[in-house]
Amino acid sequence: MELARATELEELRCEKVGWARLKTPSLHWRRRATGDPALMHFLRENSSLNIDATRYVADCENLSEMCAYPLLFSQGVALIDDKAGQSNVAEYIRRGRFLLIDACINVNITPDPDLFLLQQKRFLAEVLPEACVSALPGDHETYRCFFNIPGGKPPHTFYHNQFDERWANHGLYGVWIESRMVGVISLSGLQCGWNKMIAPAGHDIACMRMLVKIDVYAMLQH
Questions:
Q1: Domain map of the chain by residue range?
Q2: Structure pTM?
Q3: Is the pLDDT higher at 193 or at 80?
């Protein structure tokens, strides 16, 4: 099994893998984007993905732009209220791509994690009715592949480094179409973590490792 997985990852290295932020009507779609180059470097150095180190943006109003990347990162899709943008998100996923949604943990932007999750679920239910969202079990492969995540939970970034159980209670949520996971919703503030917000030493690395795990899992779905 491990040899087969190593072979798969080496095959992935042969083709350059793009990664882009999804531009949406939200004023915060590019928040923490200054930390993306460090993340891209970490992905290249710590996985077999031939990740493109350039920072890219894909507009939700441009389907061809979106489909140029196998994985899109978003601060949230619920504010996409234009029918074309909504249709593009659904078509992007139906074409076999992967969507990663990660909530910002700044309470001035995301005051209620439960509401944020509900808003993403409602959006997906409306534009992609064949999809369902469910919490990933602690033994899901996303937690187990590549780096070990103790306890089967993602690292959490907290606003002003103050523990908040409203956020800590959330693990990762998978977006599924039948047996294929087509996306992940995170309330962990991974982007806040890799951008070196105030946090325990090594937290930025833990957040980037979680991103590596999600990226590797997403790429192996193709």
A1: 2-219
A2: 0.86
A3: 80
